[in-house]
Design brief:
about 220 residues; mainly alpha; 2 domains; 7 helices; flat; disordered C terminus; membrane; transmembrane helix; Altered inheritance rate of mitochondria protein 38; Hypoxia_induced_domain
Length: about 220
C-alpha cells in the first residue's frame, strides 16, 4: 500500500475542486434554463409551486453537477497520476507549480488554458444578449433582428479572439519555459519510459541467467550419470 505525500494530497484536492467548480457552473446553467423555459411553457411557473419545490429545482442541478464533475476530475487525476512513474512525477510537478503561483497568476493561467472555451461560451452569451437587445425594436423584422444580433456577436468574438491572443503572447513572454517544454514533452516521456524499461530488463537479466545455468548443470549431471 502506497502512502500519499502531502503534495499528492494537495494536487488531488485542486484537481477535484476544479472539476466540482466546472460542474457547479454547468448545473447553474441548467437551473437557469429550467426557470427560463419553464416560465414560458408553463403558466405561473414557478409562482404556483411551493418554496420547497422551487428550492429543490434550484439546487438539484448544481448539486448533481458538482458531484459528477468532482468525481470525474478525481478519476482523471488518478489515471494521469498513477499510470506510470514518469507521468506521476510530471503531473505532481505540474500541480505543485500551479499551487505555488499567486492568485493573479492562477487566474491568468486558467484563462489562458481555457481561452477557447471562454471564447465560445462568451460568443453564445453575446448572441443571446444581442438578441434580447435587438428584440425590443418593434420596427425590424425577425430576420433583420437575427442579422443584427449576429453582427454584434461577431464583433464581440473578434475582440475576444484578439484578447486571447494577447493573453497567450503575454504568458509566453512571462513564462517562456512552459512553451519550450511543451514541444518536447512527448519525446521526454518516451525516452523516460524507455530508460525505465531498460533498467527493469537489466534487473531481470541476472535471475534469468542463473536459472538457465541451473538447468544446464542439471542436464549435464544427468547425462554424465
Amino acid at each position: 500500500m502506497k502512502l500519499l505525500t502531502q503534495g499528492e494530497i494537495d494536487s488531488h484536492f485542486y484537481a477535484t475542486a476544479g472539476g466540482g467548480l466546472k460542474g457547479l457552473c454547468a448545473g447553474l446553467l441548467v437551473t437557469g434554463a429550467i426557470f427560463k423555459i419553464g416560465a414560458k411553457k408553463i403558466p405561473n411557473f414557478p409562482k404556483n409551486l411551493p418554496w420547497s419545490i422551487r428550492t429543490a429545482i434550484f439546487i438539484s442541478p448544481p448539486t448533481v453537477g458538482i458531484t459528477i464533475g468532482a468525481e470525474e476530475a478525481s478519476n482523471a487525476f488518478d489515471r494521469d497520476m498513477y499510470s506510470g512513474d514518469y507521468e506521476s512525477q510530471l503531473k505532481l510537478a505540474e500541480y505543485q507549480k500551479w499551487s505555488n503561483l499567486p492568485l493573479s497568476e492562477k487566474l491568468l493561467s486558467g484563462v489562458v488554458n481555457n481561452k477557447y472555451k471562454i471564447i465560445v461560451g462568451s460568443w453564445a452569451a453575446s448572441m443571446y444578449g444581442s438578441w434580447l437587445y435587438v428584440d425590443r425594436d418593434p420596427i425590424m423584422t425577425r430576420a433583420q433582428k437575427l442579422v443584427q444580433a449576429r453582427m454584434y456577436a461577431q464583433f464581440l468574438s473578434v475582440i475576444l479572439l484578439l484578447a486571447g491572443m494577447g493573453l497567450t503572447i503575454y504568458d509566453e513572454e512571462k513564462h517562456p519555459e512552459n512553451y519550450g517544454e511543451q514541444k518536447n514533452d512527448d519525446w521526454k516521456r518516451i525516452l523516460a519510459e524507455e530508460e525505465i524499461r531498460a533498467k527493469e530488463d537489466k534487473k531481470a537479466e541476472p535471475g534469468t541467467y542463473k536459472r538457465v545455468n541451473i538447468y544446464k548443470t542439471s542436464d549435464s549431471s544427468s547425462s554424465s550419470s
